[in-house]
# Entry
Amino acid sequence: MFQYCLFDLDGTLTDPKEGITRSVQHALKYFGIEEPDLDRLEPFIGPPLKDSFMEFYGLSEEQALKAVEVYRERFAPVGVLENEIIPGTGQMLAHAREKGIHLAVASSKPLVFVRQILRHFQIEEYFEVVVGSELDGTRGSKEEVVEEALRQLGILEMDPADKKSLCAMIGDRKFDIQGAIAHGLTGIGVSFGYAGEGELSVAGADMVADTMEQLERILLGDELLEKNEH
# Structure
């Protein structure tokens, strides 16, 4: 059983597709780009927004920063709660806490929105530490977010062997697994989020859970941690 578990938010604990994709759609429209298919905007779920605007729509860094500003004009008042908690999340977190596991959120989403979402779904109480990025883009990478979560948990300098066996980072995208690897944690992917085909295993996930129930069994030590092929 793990003693410390760090969770991504979007696509791992909640499904934010409607709020994020409609807000991206709103930002793209500012630049004269019409994208009616929300499914095509799913890759924006997970990585830092600025990077995604540059990568997927060829915006310059200056334009991408403006796009993030326009995105938040819709996301802050409306999109943040166009969101659904993934079934079984509350039960999984409650059981983990009952077993004495220390829980944290490590999200690239701005902290102010992370806390708002956790409060909305009444799961903030389960987490000892909640870390996100800042609105100015500070601490935007997953590696930085994971580092700060480990620091706040007081285990940043834990022995590497213990860190690998006792600490897990759980997420639905390659960025979460990369953050786990960068800090020597066990990386656990979830296939019910927004990863592309094979993305999690290629990134080096130690295991991939297909359901919230399976994830709970892994975290509580009820299922052997064996590399899963996805």
Notes: The first helix runs from residue 17 to 30. The beta strands are 4-7, 14-15, 84-85, 102-110, 129-133, 167-171, 186-190, 207-209.
